[in-house]
Amino acid sequence: MTMKQTDVSIENMAAVARKASATCQCFHARMEARRLTRAYDLALRPSGLRITQFTVLSAVIGGAGTMNITELAELTGMDRTTYSRNLGPLLRRGLVDYADELVGRDRGVVMTDEGLELYCLAVPLWNRVQAKYGGKAVLA
């Protein structure tokens, strides 16, 4: 694709770009998501978990029985590759493990005792930041 000569000048395009960044809903939603992520990460810091890891643990615990990575990824709205990448540090820390049995064509993921203990410590931290931003806290 080649650029065609138009009647729009570089100065006009700079103004268009400023307006686009000031009004773009996607841009602002992503900025807000980063701000919330930082707030949750800061609140969860005493547990050693990041919000992405807390979400992964929530899916593992909340899944009905043992679920495989594909099912857990779908449950959290992540693609399988992203979910696997977020699962890696939790596996290395011994917070989750692979189940012995297959779930579909993939191994299931289960919470370890250490993972459950850490999750129980993290829930009150999550509850506080959740309430701060108008979300509903959960009982722990």
Keywords:
single chain; mainly alpha; Arc Repressor Mutant, subunit A; 3-stranded antiparallel beta sheet; 3 strands
CATH topology heading: Arc Repressor Mutant, subunit A
Number of beta strands:
3
Main sheet properties = 3 strands, antiparallel
Which CATH C-level class is it?
Mainly Alpha
Q: Specify the structural class.
A: mainly alpha
Q: Which range best describes the helical content: under 10%, 10-25%, 25-40%, 40-55%, 55-70% or over 70%?
A: 55-70%
- Look at the structure and name the CATH superfamily: Winged helix-like DNA-binding domain superfamily/Winged helix DNA-binding domain
> Which architecture name does CATH use?
Orthogonal Bundle
Q: Write down the overall geometry.
A: extended
Average pLDDT: 85
Strands side by side in the biggest sheet:
1-3-2
- Computed over alpha carbons, the radius of gyration is 21 Å
Count of folded domains? 1
* N-to-C CA distance: 57 Å
